[in-house]
């Protein structure tokens, strides 16, 4: 039996990984900008909040799409 994930499932997992990057990358970039500009910790805080909000919105969109896909699979054809 083949246990390899389907391409659609792989796309779902890649999108979830992208959400993690969307949440972490702004905070890291904000940290380095703070170091460069000497504004500790303000840019880091703002970037972390923006990254968290963007990641959360993207996660909600992904979960709604997955829910729609699963509900359309359960419906019998007319």
Overview of the structural elements:
The protein is mainly alpha-helical. The chain has one domain. The protein has 2 helices and no strands. It has helices at 7-37, 42-74. The model has no long low-confidence stretch (mean pLDDT 89).
Q: What are the salient characteristics of this protein?
A:
elongated, 82% helix, mainly alpha, 78 residues, 2 helices
Unreliable runs: none
Q: Helix fraction?
A: over 70%
* Proportion of residues in extended strands: under 5%
**CA radius of gyration:** 18 Å
DSSP summary, beta strand count: 0
Number of domains: 1
Structural class: mainly alpha
Per the principal axes of the C-alpha atoms, what is the gross shape?
Answer: elongated
Number of helices: 2
Multimer state: single chain
Profile the largest sheet.
Answer: none
Q: Could you spell the SSE succession in H and E letters? A: HH
**How many angstroms does the end-to-end distance come to?**
32 Å
Overall mean pLDDT stands at 89
SSE diagram, text form:
Blueprint: H1 7-37, H2 42-74
Write a concise synopsis of the structure shown.
By secondary structure, the protein is mostly helical.
């Amino acid at each position: 039996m083949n246990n390899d994930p389907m391409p659609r499932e792989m796309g779902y997992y890649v999108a979830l990984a992208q959400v993690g990057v969307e949440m972490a990358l702004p905070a890291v970039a904000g940290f380095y900008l703070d170091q460069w500009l000497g504004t500790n910790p303000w840019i880091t805080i703002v970037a972390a909040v923006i990254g968290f909000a963007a990641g959360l919105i993207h996660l909600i969109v992904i979960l709604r799409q997955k829910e729609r896909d699963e509900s359309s699979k359960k419906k019998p054809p007319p």
